[in-house]
Every structure is written in C-alpha cells, then in structure tokens.
Amino acid sequence: xxxxxxxxxxxxxxxxxxxxxxxxxxxxxxxxxxxxxxxxxxxxxxxxxxxxxxxxxxxxxxxxxxxxxxxxxxxxxxxxxxxxxxxxxxxxxxxxxxxxxxxxxxxxxxxxxxxxxxxxxxxxxxxxxxxxxxxxxxxxxxxxxxxxxxxxxxxxxxxxxxxxxxxxxxxxxxxxxxxxxxxxxxxxxxxxxxxxxxxxxxxxxxxxxxxxxxxxxxxxxxxxxxxxxxxxxxxxxxxxxxxxxxx
Length: 247
Ligand SMILES: [Mg+2]
Hints:
Elements: E1 16-17, E2 19-22, H1 31-45, H2 53-71, H3 77-92, H4 100-113, H5 121-127, E3 133-136, H6 141-150, E4 159-161, H7 163-166, H8 173-183, E5 190-194, H9 197-206, E6 210-213, H10 229-235, E7 239-240
Parallel strand pairs: 1-7, 2-3, 2-5, 3-4, 5-6
Helix pairs in contact: 1-2, 1-4, 2-3, 3-4
C-alpha cells in the first residue's frame, strides 16, 4: 500500500477523462484461467497422474510467492521463473533439470495457448473509440506486448508500460505517471481500470488518476462489465473526451 494521499474527485476542477489505462491480467486477459488450465495441461503432458487439483493450487501459490520476489526487485524475471520451476518440481517429487527455466518455458507454452480476453473486452474497447488507451502492468513490457499481440489487443493500445520501463511496480505512483506520460495526458485527465483494490484502484487514486475496479462477479462496488465504462463515467459526473478524428 502506498502512503501517498489520494486526490479527491472534489478537488478536480475539470471532471474530464481524456485517456484510459488498463491493468492486463484478470482485467483484459483471463490470467487465472490460463494459469490453471496451462499448468494442468503441462503436468498431464509430463505424465503427472491424478486430477491435478492440488498441484494446480500449489502452482498458483508458488507463482504468487516467486512473482512477489520479482516485484520487490530481488530477482529478475527469468530468475524468479527458474526458482518457481525448481520449487514446483521439488513439491512434485520430480528431479530438477539442469535448467529449470526451460521447464518453466514448457509451462508457459501451455499457459499462452489458453490465453483469452474476457467476453466484454472487445466491445468495451469499441465503446471507447477516439479515446487514447494504454496498459500499465506489473509484468515485463515486452512479454506483456507479446501476450496482448497473441490475443489480438495490441493494436487497440497506444502504450504498454511495465515494471521494467517504470522501474517500480504498482501501487507506486511512478508507474501510473509513466503510463499517463506515454499517452500525453496529466494524471488528473486519466482513469485506470484494474481488478485489484490495493495495487490498482488505490494506487491509481494516489497517483491522481480516477481508479475504478472491475469485478465481473459484481460483488464489489465498481464495474461489473467493461462495456459499461462510458455509462459509468457519465452516471458519476465525468465527461469522456473523444477525439472524433480518431473514432
Ligand atoms: Mg490484475
């Protein structure tokens, strides 16, 4: 959590949104499904028996632990992936190969085969025609672009800002500011949409953006469908500025 104070909407003189930045994983792309289906397919291919429910749960937890080390700057992306693979092989009781990162890349192929955008995403991006759009992610920029290309979204986004570009992960305000700078807008003119309250919504608010949470289960306040974003802004007293020449 950041200690910076959020800029209250009431302090804004012009409630106009000129650009929209998105989180990627579990906001645009269904990361959780791809991760769970990917590890199950990989382990099946490797001959691991059983229904694999426990193994998939262990993989999810280990991914979180090792990725946190990457976000904290204690290890690079390949280093955390190699340590993750080694840890998983130990849990499975399988021998570690000489290069655990290659084992991880085997998983990643299966993960990528299962990557899908959520059903509301393409319609949402169409509903924002004429508005500059981008992504700010706690992933590596190049890999994020690769994933967005794979699911056919890269052409809709004017920028992809990852931790390697910003030098810090969300919720640090600097990564949000890097996204705004890439789209040529002030933080107060931008909104950020993500699936997490702490790193996405609270981080964006602290950086001066309008932060909105997407929760497709509808269990928390925010958006339950990205296609409702223009309507949500309007209902909450915001104006969405569109460049009609780019519509
Ligand atoms: Mg996310």
